[in-house]
Design brief:
The chain is mainly alpha-helical. Helix content is 76%, strand content 0%.
Amino acid sequence: MGNREDLLASATRCLQEKGYGRTTARDIATGAGVSLAAIGYHYGSKDALLVEALVGAMGAWGESIGAALAAAAEVDDPKERFVRAWNAVRDSFAEHRGLWTVQFELLGQLDHLPGLPERLAAAQKDGRLGLAALFQGRAEAADTPEELARGVFYQSLLLGQAAQWLIGPELAPSGEEYLHGLALVSGDVLGGAAG
């Protein structure tokens, strides 16, 4: 790897291990085996480098969970597929704890991190469409209000599950709990039979 890639790998490790606020430019440079000046040369600033590292780590999580959800997609029964998918998401948090900790850490600091709100906002729509496709076990569909609505639903459940897991892994809802809640809420809201 070159200095640029070494810096990115070091920044990713630092984010996972120390979080955003406790990571220093020196931590990153030392981990990459380069000078502090290399950060400015390749990325402009420590914050810009950390944003790149965060976006890359989110992509890696997306690929990881995509593989797990692809396995769940092979299940014909939609209820069982839903349960397996949510259990796979919950189980992914242990491997990617640092990523989720950093994301929640940064929510309160978005106004102070140049470029991050824009990067996250730009990725949000694509993320919603991707989640809608993944959880339904099919290829990504066209950008329609229906697909975005599905994505909003899945994204909201995902963030809630992640927050509960970070508070205590035993608190994160299982796929079975989500399915039961979905049946109850849809019955309450839509007037269908609750299960």
